[in-house]
Amino acid sequence: MNALTFPILRLLADGKFHSGEDLAQQFKVTRATIWNAVNHAETLGIEVFSVRGRGYKLPQAIEFLDENEVLKAIGEQRAWFKLEVLDEVASTNTILMQSKHAAHATCVAAHVQTSGKGRRGRTWVSHLGSSLTFSLLWRFQCGAAALSGLSLAVGVALMRTLHGFGINQAQLKWPNDVLIDSKKLAGILIELQGDMEGPSAAVIGVGVNLNLPKNVLHNIDQPAIDLASTSVPIDQNELLGVLLKHLADVLSGFEQQGFIGLRDEWLSHHAYHGKPVRMHLPDGRDVQGVVKSVAEDGILLVETALGLQRFSAGEISLRGV
Fold first, then answer.
1. Which of 14, 66, 200, 301 could join 194 in a cystine, given CB atoms 3.0 to 4.6 angstroms apart?
2. Up-side HSE of residue 317: CA atoms within 13 Å toward CB?
3. Topology match between the domains 67-267 and 276-320
4. pTM of the full predicted structure?
5. pLDDT tens digit string along 89-100?
6. Is 83 exposed, middle or buried (0-12, 13-18, 19+ CB in 10 A)?
7. In DSSP terms, which residues pair with 280 in a beta bridge?
8. Domain covering 67-267 in this structure, CATH number
9. What residues does each domain of the chain span?
């Protein structure tokens, strides 16, 4: 890491040119030191224009997360949360998974993740100002065995948030994706800690595409979309705050009732409910069928040539036909 990189990027966030000389004077360092800090930004995948005689600028103005603004957006429930916004991390999920003493409802958000985790071993693409990436630690009195369907519950919180902002075309894809026009807008990754029967904890990782550059969209290994494509302006501080508020409501209800209390709401948003799908199994086989429902524990129920079959989240990759 370079300690000057993000202070410089905050100045460049206005999308205007800033000369190397002015930046050097402001930070009381040499222009070579400024260049090194900007060069580090580029190693993180952050594009910085450098024009002789004009200085440095970002391709467009960007918005940084602000802890106070996020807490304000949470509202009355902000006292529940311990929020930390970091500039550069490998993975917010990893930070919380490795923290033995993190408090309940600790949320770690990052401007840049260099090794963000996605489902099935994928990497979640995260770029400065173009993605909202965070992880939330939530402690449960029940054991990990009772947390089946948790990723679906988190999906309900995402739907309440996005629909509240007017993104009514957003839908859910079992078990943990948010789609718009069959393209991935957001993803959920949950990692569990604790005993199967005793107290447990979940680290809930969420990534939302805000405004991805075209070259980044094209390099993602599946069809993807961002919120900028909806033409609905959303402040990411407000987005994170409102989403945390809905997560608090959903997770509290989930611990009391399990997924069954959210199942009908989840099904109303499922992009593939009642539709033909193709499921890729770990052994390489493909199974086709029609989605009938999800069970009380979040298991997907699919009518296949062999009859009604149950599929768990860790077993298959689901695609529309």
1. 200
2. 12
3. no
4. 0.91
5. 999 999 999 988
6. buried
7. 286, 317
8. 3.30.930.10
9. 5-57, 67-267, 276-320
